[in-house]
Write a structure and sequence with these properties.
10 helices; mainly beta; 45% strand; 22-stranded antiparallel beta barrel; 47 strands; five-stranded mixed beta sheet
Length: 937
């Protein structure tokens, strides 16, 4: 066992012993019975605790309990999976035993939860009664996944949500891109306690899902602070703002008094990827209806590696093309013989130097240390007004590897420093902070709210175990191997003022809620350059590449401090026109200081034929302005491009859309994305313990913003035009250019199905949920291209090529189906989940023979829990129980002596990559086992 793993296990054992020792108490003082409100029968295994204390117990087979408490006043809470929790006061004297009974109402999975997001009415509605589909996911459901990061927790409980960790993707190794309904990370709006949460500073520019987009880092919010998550699966730009084309994710933080602790330790079956997590939430009651909730959480995630053995050139480049003498290419026999000779030289040097082919790449999760602190508070100011605040700090430090630099790559490696090459690392330092303050209350029937939230994110890049090859002349004495490569930042300040009132009684209606609001937002985006050695070429005539290998630093020319203001106003009306017909309509006007104005609207309705059947539908339009990142990001980076013969490094420049270079290419100025959303669904409660929702949707997006493919240098045609433009701008060292542009129109169609039931059993309780999402995205119409550049299929010079199209339409699962069963009997619980991930596809930029299709997979998660004492539960489980992996890359015919002289087709980069990096279903880490301890006091 690794020393780090031993330390983690020791820490975990000490923690568990501490929790147990603090909860082992006797039981007397309060007695009572807990019954089922429907049948009157006693409920066994119900947890009864004194809120804010450390004493608790559970009911016996008849539903009876006894609790030890000293004299005083208490609040008792009775809770049980499948039932709504209930609190009751208890007055204990020194001479008598108090009696407190509870009656619990059954709670049907998540579909019986009252929904907040998607409506500004005070009328309580469950997710089967809303005009648009909403998933309500409680903290217990998140913990039951066995995952410790919010993105991965959601990935296994919300089928319309997708998030998969990336590898060898620069900064994207450290912040997981996430999406709803197969759309982009920047087309979903994230709210925290109902208020807009800021985006990350990082823009995804590598070959990952969500390429070219900016998302929100859900993992910056401690999972221990989350009470529940609501996922609105419908366009909501008119209600919440311009980013909500695909939907809204609203995270609600804990408010309850008491202490909750959750800790987990785990490891991948393969022996790496160790995880240690502990989160503590402490809630305090303030005055009559106030509270203060504090959360601290620490997560350690070890790196994983699923790379194969490298078979390519190391010291001598034998993977070379044919020589040509006087215009005549060498013969097949001469070509093969020459390559064989170079190959033999390379093999001899590999053996002589003891080069390890299996340890020169890290294809898997990055190593991450994450620490976060959050507070959530409400303080009554008067009988009808309150002050509230939510604030958080999150610090993350990660290490991810790039691609190995081999000795034969003489333009990139200083042999005096690294005689056998080196594996460079990107070290990230990510700081995230936010502070929301506000006051709300009621005056003359108007519910009003005034708030301001300031938040931001910074992403610092450091490069370690690397070199700047142009500094070879320094030798080894003073040659740097670590570099500060620059920092990205994004900060946002949002002010809101809203008011709402229900005029239903005046109009003779059950409800007629009118909500109005004003918003102001200021966005600020910045790039700070790295140190000079991270980007400069100190000896251009040497032929050596300048800058830090793996991630050349941001240059002074890339530095930017951009800002913009956004003004908005909305009106939202929701009314029960009859007992059966619910109608919602909303309109929003937004004005961007750099783009002008836009109007978004929505009309939605639900008609209730009866408890057994309702019909609902929505139609809306949306608007998403280009992010400041997409407008102002620029950089020169080393990009490895698959050529069918291996990965070829290219110095690629990303140029601002409004730059002279972009204008020379004929790239049009960025404009906003426009969307139209349609949905039609049914909801049904045919039985008291069965709920069904089925929702079909179509989302049309026009002028979708993409990050272009590389426009490569060449000696003729389009390639020569590229070379002339780059040379004319003084970019002689840059091999290719990229831009952000409005290039495509897409249509996404899909179906969401959620069926939940809690069948009544003679012993124990059982919740069963079947949830599925099926979707398809298509590119419609002609793809735009730069006006001054003809397409060149051979060079791949296209604004949006076939690889980009597949990444947008085929790289996420076509369907995801989840079946979950949660059973509890007294002190024992069990969770079994089957998740089916649909097919994914990746395309080569030019050669269809290198396209790959990866088959559907079924992943099984299982866990068993035991309540050691009333307030402490231990869970042993396994995610991906049967150690399922995605399909391996099939196109892996890399060059070998047996294939010299013949064409090879290789997506594996000489065997280094076993699994695809561009099309992902659920990751390629295999099985994971864990031990989890949770305690509630």
């Amino acid at each position: 066992m690794k020393k780090s793993t031993q330390r983690i296990f020791t820490f975990f054992a000490v923690f568990c012993l501490g929790v147990l020792s603090s909860t082992l108490v006797s039981a007397q003082g309060v007695r009572g019975r807990v019954t089922d409100a429907t049948t009157g029968a006693g409920l066994p295994g119900v947890t009864v605790v004194a809120v804010g204390g450390t004493t608790g117990t559970s009911t016996d087979a008849n539903g009876d309990y006894a609790l030890s408490l000293g004299a005083g006043s208490y609040t008792l809470r009775a809770s049980f999976v499948g039932f709504q929790s209930v609190t009751a006061p208890a007055q204990v004297s020194g001479s008598e035993t108090a009696t407190v009974n509870f009656s619990l109402k059954e709670q049907l999975a998540t579909l019986n939860e009252v929904v907040v997001v998607g409506s500004r009415s005070t009328q309580a509605r469950t997710s089967t009664e809303t005009v648009a589909p909403v998933d309500v996911i409680q903290s217990r459901d998140l913990v039951a996944t066995g995952q410790v990061e919010p993105t991965q927790q959601l990935n296994f409980v919300a089928p319309s949500f997708n998030s998969s960790r990336q590898t060898i993707a620069d900064g994207t190794d450290h912040i997981d891109p996430a999406s709803i309904r197969g759309l982009g990370p920047d087309q979903v709006l994230v709210l925290l306690n109902g208020k807009r949460q800021h985006n990350t500073a990082l823009i995804n520019i590598n070959g990952t899902v969500g390429r070219g987009s900016v998302g929100t880092d859900l993992n910056a919010i401690p999972s221990a602070a989350i009470e529940r998550i609501e996922v609105l699966r419908d366009g909501a730009s008119s209600q919440y703002g311009s980013d909500a084309i695909a939907g809204v994710i609203n995270l609600r933080l804990k408010e309850r008094p008491g202490t909750s602790v959750n800790a987990q330790i785990g490891q991948q079956y393969a022996g790496d990827g160790e995880v240690a997590q502990i989160g503590i939430n402490q809630g305090f009651k303030l005055k009559k209806d106030g509270f203060l909730s504090l959360t601290g959480e620490f997560r350690h995630r070890g790196a994983t590696n699923r790379a194969g053995d490298y078979t390519g050139p190391v010291y001598v480049n034998w993977n070379a093309g044919r020589n040509t003498v006087n215009g005549v290419p060498e013969t097949d026999a001469a070509y093969i013989a020459r390559r064989q000779g170079l190959y033999n030289q390379d093999q001899a040097l590999i053996q002589q130097n003891g080069f390890d082919r299996s340890r020169n790449i890290q294809a898997g999760n990055s190593r991450v240390e994450n620490a976060g602190f959050f507070l959530n508070a409400r303080v009554p100011l008067s009988a009808k007004a309150s002050f509230y605040a939510t604030g958080g700090l999150n610090y993350r430090r990660g290490v991810a590897s790039g691609l190995y630099r081999y000795p034969y790559q003489t333009t990139q490696v200083i042999p005096e420093l690294y005689p056998s090459g080196f594996l460079p690392n990107i070290q990230s330092t990510i700081n995230d902070q936010s502070l929301l303050v506000g006051v709300n209350g009621e005056s003359n029937g108007w519910r009003w709210d005034i708030s301001n939230v300031y938040g931001g994110n910074s992403f610092r890049f450091d490069v370690t175990n690397s070199n700047n090859a142009s500094l070879q002349y320094l030798g080894t004495a003073n040659n740097p191997t670590s570099f500060y490569a620059g920092t990205l930042s994004f900060y946002q300040n949002t002010a809101d003022a809203s008011a709402a009132k229900d005029f239903g009684s005046r109009l003779g209606l059950k409800t007629f809620n009118v909500a109005v609001g004003l918003n102001y937002r200021n966005d600020r985006y910045g790039i700070r350059p790295g140190e000079a050695a991270s980007y400069l070429n100190f000896s251009p005539q040497s032929g050596k590449v300048g800058g830090a290998q793996v991630f050349p630093g941001y240059q002074p020319a890339n530095a930017v401090r951009a800002t913009r203001d956004v003004y908005g106003a909305y009106v939202d009306i929701e009314t029960d026109l009859t007992d059966r017909l619910l109608v919602n309509t909303a309109g929003r006007y937004e004005y961007y200081s750099d783009f002008g104005g836009n109007v978004a609207g929505k009309l939605a309705a639900r008609y209730k034929f009866g408890d057994a059947f309702s019909l609902r539908g929505t139609i809306s339009n949306g608007f998403r302005a280009p992010s400041l990142h997409q407008r102002y990001f620029s950089a020169v980076s080393t990009v490895f491009v698959s050529t069918g013969q291996g990965l070829e490094p290219r110095q690629t420049g990303t140029y601002r859309n409004d730059s002279p270079i972009a204008q020379a290419f004929g790239v049009p100025p960025l404009t906003a994305e426009q969307s139209t959303n349609y949905s039609l669904g049914i909801t049904s409660r045919p039985l008291a313990n069965l709920s069904i929702t089925v929702d079909a949707y179509q989302i049309d997006i026009r002028n979708r913003i993409i990050y272009s493919n590389q426009f490569n240098r060449g000696t003729s045609g389009a390639g020569l035009i590229v070379a002339n433009i780059l040379n004319g701008a003084g970019q002689q060292d840059v091999n290719a250019a990229q831009f952000f542009a409005n290039a495509v129109n897409t249509r996404t169609q899909g179906l969401d199905v959620v069926i939940a039931t809690s069948p009544r059993l003679s012993t124990g309780t059982l919740d069963i949920t079947l949830a599925a999402n099926v979707n398809r995205t298509q590119v419609r119409g002609e793809v735009q291209r730069p006006a001054n550049l003809p397409a060149d299929a051979q060079l791949g010079n296209a604004l949006f090529n076939r690889q980009d199209s597949a990444r947008l339409t085929l790289a996420q699962p076509k369907n995801k189906i989840s079946l979950t069963g949660n059973y509890r009997l007294r002190k024992i619980g069990a969770v079994l989940r089957f998740t089916h991930f649909g097919e994914v596809v990746s395309y080569d930029p030019v050669n269809p023979a290198l396209d790959e299709t990866f088959s559907p997979r079924l992943v099984t998660d299982a866990s068993v829990s035991f309540r050691l004492v009333p307030t402490v539960t231990m869970t042993l489980g396994a995610n991906n129980l049967f150690d399922v992996y995605p399909d391996k890359l099939k196109k892996n015919l890399y060059a070998t002596p047996e294939r010299f002289g013949t064409a090879v087709q290789d997506n594996s980069s000489f065997g280094r990559f076993v699994y695809s990096r561009s099309a992902t279903q659920f990751g390629a880490n295999g099985g994971y086992y864990f031990l989890n301890v949770s305690a509630t006091f």
